[in-house]
Amino acid sequence: MTADDLPVNADRLELLQNCWVVPDLDEAMQRWLSMGIGPFFRRDADYPDALYRGRPEPLAFKAALAQAGPVQIELIQQTSAGPSAYRDVVSEGQSGFHHMCRMVHDVGEEIARLRARGIEMASEFRSVGGAQVAYADTRREMGCMLELVPTEPVLVNLFRDVAQAARYWDGSDPVRMLELNGDTPPQN
Questions:
Q1: Residue 90 and residue 95: Cα distance in Å, rounded?
Q2: CA 165-68-29 angle, 5° bins
């Protein structure tokens, strides 16, 4: 996938990822691996400057990415204690479907477009390489949250590399630590 593969029409909703919030990331990865989905790329995330519904609220979580055919799978275990977009959908200690992800050219423009439709941003933060990320509360429209991520090279490369690793995965090295430093994509 490249930035050129994304739709030009902002009204056309193309989704590339499904995410589940889980109480135990390691256990959840093992369940998915037992179904033949992997390898997983795991990382810890800490966003002390995150916003929750427009107010500062630190956010920390463990996450893992894998690929299942054309769909990326994300598993998230929240490790911070406060309210979050994750807790809005899945209660602490529970597992459940949380969001679908859309990669857009300009997250700020997409936030403005959704807000103009009356859709609130549940969470906003700066992720890998300073990329703006947001969770739109689209539960009324779609039954789940919608994650918005930008077409920054580090994220495009990350998503591409996760998909490539799954395509050629032989079952070895099922969980790989993901070290994201600036614009460095994962190594297969």
A1: 7
A2: 80
Residue-wise pLDDT tens digits, 6-19: 444 455 567 899 99
Q: Average of pLDDT values for 53-57?
A: 98
For 113, the enclosing helix (H) or strand (E) is helix 107-116
In the chain the first and final C-alpha atoms are separated, in Å, by 16
| Gap between the Cα atoms of 30 and 54, Å rounded | 35
Q: What is the pLDDT of residues 91-142, one digit of tens each?
A: 999 999 999 999 999 999 999 999 999 999 999 999 988 899 999 999 999 9
What pTM value is reported for the model? Answer: 0.89
Phi, psi of 11 (to 5 degrees): -80, -10
- φ/ψ of 25, rounded to 5, equals -60, -45
In the chain, % helix, strand, coil (3-state, to 5) comes to: 25, 35, 40
Provide the pLDDT for residue 187.
44
78 three-class SS: strand
* Strand partners of residue 135: 123, 147
Strands (DSSP E) along the chain, which ranges? Answer: 17-21, 40-47, 51-52, 55-56, 59-68, 71-78, 96-104, 121-126, 132-136, 145-150, 175-177
